[in-house]
Amino acid sequence: MFYDLNVPYSPDDPEAPHTLNFLAELGYTTVALSQTLTGKLPSSVSPPPLPPNPPKTLQLLTRLNLTLSDPAQNQRLNNLTQAYDIVALRPTNEKTLLNACTNLECDVISLDLSVRLPFHFKFKMLSAAISRGIRLEICYGPGVTGSGLDARRNLIGNAMSLIRATRGGRGIIVSSEARRALSLRAPWDVINLTCVWGLSQERGKEAICEEARKVTALARLKRTSWRGIVDIVHGGEKAKHEKPIAKQKGQAQSTASTEPGTITDTLKRKASLGSESVAEEAEKPLSKREMKRRAKKARLGSQGEDAS
Predict the structure, then answer these.
(1) Cα 105 to Cα 108: distance, rounded to the nearest angstrom
(2) Which of helix, strand or coil describes residue 182?
(3) Count of H helices and E strands in the chain?
(4) What domains lie within the chain, and their CATH numbers?
(5) Best CA proximity match to 140, nearest among 128, 151, 124
(6) Quick one: CA dihedral 100, 106, 107, 108, positive or negative?
(7) pLDDT digits over 2-47, tens only?
(8) Total-model pTM
(9) CA separation (Å) from 91 to 22, 66, 128?
(10) Burial of 132 per CB tally in 10 Å (0-12, 13-18, 19+)
(11) pLDDT tens digits for 245-265?
């Protein structure tokens, strides 16, 4: 199963159906349609309606990208987690990146690696986010087509720095952030691209398969449980089609009194059935091993009597 968790989407975009069909042809199975917000959030935020008649092989998710420029910015992340399937943060400076890695509740930290970043990645900062279940995202779309040599150079250099800071690419996912179908790449092309950045082929495949699946699973746990720890499961409730135990017992007694020879009668004759089974076991022929044991016992007994 291949995942692409960052596909920009708007309901009035005429290219959206073509992009989804091309993703299905390339072999992707789960796609997150993203909406980007910058600055202060409006009073009510809700995901846009999903496109009609999507490919049947695609599972569509909703995602919100928040651009952080101020560490004191209140984003109401708990409410957004209930509205969207995935909540991603995009820090623009080192202070907001530190706040997102250590304090803020989100599912993904997505960095724009196609620009020159004013800070360096640190292992202690990034490992704090990975230990909290937050994944770091690399988007290859802005640095692949139509962005110029500077964007491609920045993408390769920043991706290599991020992989080096995470000690081999742990907790990294790769998405497209492609606004058109021409910017998309097949899953194995993306894996080859990660090898250019410094990831191994196994890590590259995990970035678009296993690590991306963990993002969706952990995000689902956050929505359906309390901090991903306590969950409400079905158990102990009486189903509508089940009858109370007392009524079942009363019905069993009434059937036993009206219909002789039923299951209750056989249960009452349990002792007689046990004696018959014992008699049957006694009539069974002895095995050769049992016959030898009894003969040896009788021989030893006769020797003891002669000695006395």
Answers:
(1) 9
(2) helix
(3) 12, 9
(4) 2-231 (3.20.20.140), 269-307 (no CATH)
(5) 151
(6) negative
(7) 999 999 999 888 889 999 999 999 999 999 999 998 877 777 788 8
(8) 0.71
(9) 30, 8, 16
(10) middle
(11) 444 545 545 444 444 444 444
